[in-house]
Amino acid sequence: MLPFLIALVLTVVMFVAVREKKTVHGNARLANDRDLADSGFFPDEKELKNLKHPSLLIGKMPENKGRFKSRYLLYSGQQFLMLYAPTRSGKGVGIVIPNGIWYTESMVFLDIKLENFLETAGYRKNVLKQEVYLFSPDGYAREIGGETVLTTHRYNPLYYIRRDAVYRFGDLEKIAVILFPMTGGENDTWVESSKNVFISLVLWLLDTELEGKFKVNMNSVMKLSIPADGSSLAKWMLNEIRSRGNEVLTERWKEYHALPEEEKQGKTPSTYPLSDDTIRLFRQFAAKDPEQQESIMLDFNRTMSMFANPVVAAATEDNDFDMRDVRRKKMTIYYGISPGALKQYQRLTNLFFSQLLNENVRTLPEHDATLKYQCTLMLDEFTSMGRLDVVQVSLAFTAGYNLRFVFILQNREQLFDEKHGYGKMGGNTILKNCAVEIFYPPKKVDESVKDVSETIGYYDFVRTQISRTTGKNSSTTRNKIIEKRAVMLPQEITDLRDQKFKFKGKKTSFSLPQIVMSEFCRPFIAHKIVSFDQKNESFFVNARKYSRKNIIDTPVLNIPQDEVVRQLMLQREREEAWKAAQPAFDKDDFDDEKEYFPDGDSGD
Predict the structure, then answer these.
(1) What's the pLDDT score for residue 151?
(2) CA 265 – CA 261 distance, rounded (Å)
(3) CA 311, CA 314: separation in Å to the nearest integer?
(4) Terminal-to-terminal C-alpha distance of the chain
(5) CA–CA separation, 128 vs 166, rounded Å?
(6) pLDDT tens digit string along 39-91?
(7) Which CATH superfamily is domain 78-143+326-440+528-549+562-604 in?
(8) Rounded Cα–Cα distance for residues 118 and 546 (Å)
């Protein structure tokens, strides 16, 4: 009985001690080895074999510290990643390129400057045995037979409109609201009307598709908007209603559909009728006065003029890949675009990724055995394409469809920006679905640094205050003062940049530390993967070299050579104007990369 009572008393004392161990300001700290062991970031071989889908590589532990020194951080499962990386801080070297080589299932890249295509596509195609595609609305310039040609795999947004009458209008409207977005401003009336013109012209193309006179693509929409006979668009629309919407033609088609299948051969009427939606929208536009029609077409052309560009017209003429297959087979798509073209093609970029998501959140893998692969979307400069409404709407359930996001931004402010980002509510929705956030420290303290310091948390900093009195009854008094102290002050976070990668014994401008914040353990400091480090990362170095030596072939666009020369000149002028408009960077943003990086590799 006595031993039992002693044990009971000790248990109660320990319980009380635990309960009474309270803090004033918090008990935050960085993760220790025990925390990291339970985090899931360092699976053993058995756990790796049991993974259903490949992990993302999100960093590496320092080589001289702790139980997990020099181990890669593996982020398994279906949850999403948010990376905050300032300009030229190593996001390409540390996250994008390593995963482009490591990740063995499907990937889609927003590839600004086409660096990821050049560094990983050859490896993904020839070693990982994937289907690899590059869509570049401006065309990717290559030298063939002494001539510069523009090449790209083609993407036709209108290809994905289901022809079934039940879905047709809804699919088309999803495209239209992206190309003609409402802003809540005074011009929304014209935007709505120009959107309806777009819908009506695409409906006409769909109605008459089997006649074979026009392909259903964006360039055909532009051609229809300017009638070949020189008449007004309204007049052309009314003529089409008269010729394709009359009772005689309707009756002819009714008689045709009433025939038995075996008797229909060779009796299909040569002229196809217009749908009710087409007629309604044609009449709606034609009923407006000429001045209103002119204003509507001005807004229409502001959006659609990019498809009149010969390169974009050729690049969107047809489809060389099917984005609905990214979960059916291992494939990689690079959306390649130059920084200066981001604004010009923002809506096309938005449309591409919106369609990619819409087309892949219709069927769950458990309802279709062919959907057996995961697809990771690597979205560099995520907010550059404008607000992806489908992301906000579907993010909470997208993971269940085996779509995984890696969002890359310069800072949190970009995400929460009301005009160019997702606003406070939308930004929080996205962050709630990112189980891991990685922060590359910037050069200076800003709001993002303060947010990270706040997120890591505070602890009770205890200092002793000593008071002495002199005289006959002198005494010394010691008081413990509890103060609030951040685990990492903002300045301490930016100071992490002083830890640089060394190449040939010299410090480079490439800073190593990154802060990892996750649902799985307390925050901790890891290192970026230095995928150009021949000594410690030869796997990545060799894969990158292989890709550069084995750049995949991309189809040549059917464009006259004089037009190619003209387009290349316009592209160069645009890029120079973009560079001139950029703010000045600190000196180490323009260090000579050859001094630090093998074979001229850059830090980002």
Answers:
(1) 97
(2) 8
(3) 5
(4) 70
(5) 40
(6) 999 998 898 888 888 999 999 999 888 899 999 999 998 899 999 999 888 99
(7) P-loop containing nucleotide triphosphate hydrolases (3.40.50.300)
(8) 10
Place of tokens 């299932």: 105
Phi and psi (nearest 5°) for 506?
Answer: -110, 145
For the stretch 16-29, pLDDT in tens is 444 446 776 677 89
DSSP string, 211-262: G-SS-SSHHHHHHHHS-TTS--HHHHHHHHHHHHSSHHHHHHHHHHHHS-GG
DSSP letters spanning 322-378: -GGGTTTS-EEEEEEE-GGGTTTTHHHHHHHHHHHHHHHSSS-GGG-TT----EEEE
pLDDT above 70 (res 592): no
The pLDDT-based confidence of 472 (bands split at 50, 70, 90) is low
DSSP helix/strand/coil, 53:
coil
Tokens of 12: 């109660």
Helices (H), 434-511: 447-456, 490-495
Separation of alpha carbons 376 and 108, rounded Å:
6
| pLDDT over threshold 50, residue 169 | yes
Going by DSSP bridges, is the β-strand pair 458-469/475-486 parallel, antiparallel, or unpaired?
A: antiparallel
Pairing label, strands 56-60, 131-135: unpaired
Residue 584 is predicted with a pLDDT of 57
Band (pLDDT 50/70/90 cuts) for residue 594 is: very low
Cβ proximity of 379 and 110 under 8 Å: yes
Scored b (16 or more CB within 10 A) or e, 529-553 reads bbbbbeeebeebbebbbbbbeeebe
Q: What are residue 73's DSSP bridge partners?
A: 59
Inter-residue long-range contacts of 234-238, CB under 8 Å, 24+ positions, other chains counted: 234/285, 234/286, 234/288, 234/290, 234/293, 235/286, 237/200, 237/282, 237/283, 237/285, 237/286, 238/282, 238/286
Q: With the CA atoms of 72, 78, 84 and 86 taken in that order, what torsion angle do they form, in degrees rounded to the nearest 10?
A: 70
Query: What single-letter DSSP state applies at residue 92?
Result: I
Nearest in space to 462 (alpha carbons), one of 444, 491, 488, 482: 482
Choice among 4-13, 484-493, 510-519, 540-549 with the minimum mean pLDDT: 4-13
285-336 pLDDT, tens digit per residue, is 999 999 999 999 999 999 999 999 999 999 999 999 999 999 999 999 999 9
Q: 57 - beta bridge partners?
A: 74
Bridge partners of residue 516, in order along the sequence: 438, 524
pLDDT of residue 356: 97
What is the pTM (predicted TM-score) of this model?
0.89
For 69, the 3-state DSSP assignment is: coil
Q: What pLDDT was estimated at residue 391?
A: 86
The amino acid that residue 297 corresponds to is M
What ranges do the domains of the chain cover? 78-143+326-440+528-549+562-604, 157-310
Percent of the chain with pLDDT over 90: 68
pLDDT for residue 588 is more than 90: no
Tokens 């956030």 belong to which residue? 437
Of residues 517, 451, 521, 439, the one with CA closest to residue 486: 451
Instruction: Map 100-111 to HEC letters.
Output: HHHCCCEEEEEE
